[in-house]
Amino acid sequence: MKDKLKKLVGLSQIDAELLELEELLLSLPQAILTFEAEQKNRVHEFENYKTILANLESEKRSKESDLTEKKDWIVKGEEKLKAIKTNKEYHALLKEISLAKKTINLLEEQITKLTDAIQNEQNRISESENKVEGEKNTTSTEVEKMKEQLKSIEEKRQAKSLEREQFLEGVEVTMIHHYNLIRQKINPALALAKNGFCCECNTKIPPQIFNDLHRLNSLISCPRCRRILYLELALD
Ligand SMILES: [Zn+2]
Questions:
Q1: CATH architecture assignment, domain 24-168
Q2: Measured in angstroms, how far is the CA atom of residue 229 from the centroid of ligand 1?
Q3: How far is the CA of 164 from the centre of ligand 1 (A)?
Q4: How far is the CA of 31 from the centre of ligand 1 (A)?
Q5: Angle at 40 between CA 143 and CA 27, to 5 degrees
Q6: Which segment of 93-107, 135-149, 187-201 scores lowest on mean pLDDT?
Q7: 187 pLDDT tier (thresholds 50, 70, 90)
Q8: Around ion ligand 1, which residues have CB less than 5 A away?
Q9: Would you say 5 and 191 are in contact if contact means Cβ atoms under 8 Å apart?
Q10: 209 C-alpha to center of ligand 1: Å?
Q11: Which residue, among 27, 9, 51, has the nearest Cα to 219 in the 3D structure?
Q12: Using CB atoms within 10 A of its CB, is residue 46 exposed (0-12), middle (13-18) or buried (19+)?
């Protein structure tokens, strides 16, 4: 029984290592995707800022063109004033010119605000560009590293699987069957018994069971978690 139990402990260790590798194989691709998505987001943000800047610049150009037009109109209007004969026409045009001057003030205010906004946007773009450029290399390196890691873990997993197959050849079929039945219900299927406790579920093991564990006449289960118990000492 001692050899049989030793084999199960060995198998359980291989399975624990396999599980760890499989969990890494599941989590790493997600980590790679997250890294790449973050990089894409930064680029997207940068492109957004550029669009905002282009819109602001276009708005400013349009206001500047309105301003030039208004100023030209006033020059012409003031010329016209000199030639007007009637009081009524004179005052009507004077009022129009005064309104146009107010519009000019307004346009100038708007252009100043747009100039500030453009400056802010340019600063934001330059910051964002530095960030994108700076993190592009880091991200690529990190992603490359994780892809390498993934490849290496996959190789380790294959090697471990092969090791498991070879290991199973030396284990009695009924023992494997028993082990698998437990493992389907609870993983790991084996639990170390130490200082009077089951190390997996922390249940106190009755002294009688401890004595049986020392004798190694049969496989003994933890009264609570039903895992196969073993004593390190008894297997030495
Ligand atoms: Zn237990």
A1: Orthogonal Bundle (1.10)
A2: 8
A3: 25
A4: 34
A5: 40
A6: 135-149
A7: very high
A8: 198, 200-201, 203, 222, 224-225
A9: no
A10: 12
A11: 9
A12: middle
The whole-angstrom separation of Cα 117 and Cα 61 is: 14
Q: 202 alpha carbon to ligand 1 midpoint, in Å?
A: 6
Alpha-carbon radius of gyration of the chain: 40
Residue with tokens 């282009």: 54
174 alpha carbon to ligand 1 midpoint, in Å? Answer: 22
Element (H, E) at 190: strand 190-194
Return the amino acid letter for 11. Answer: L
Asked whether the beta carbons of 199 and 191 are under 8 A apart, the reply is yes
Q: What's the 205 CA to ligand 1 centre distance in angstroms?
A: 8
Instruction: State residue 1's pLDDT score.
Output: 85
For residue 193, how far is its CA from the centre of ligand 1 (angstroms)? Answer: 8
Comma-separated ranges of CATH 1.10.287.1490 domains in the chain: 24-168
pLDDT in tens, 25-49: 999 999 999 988 988 999 999 999 9
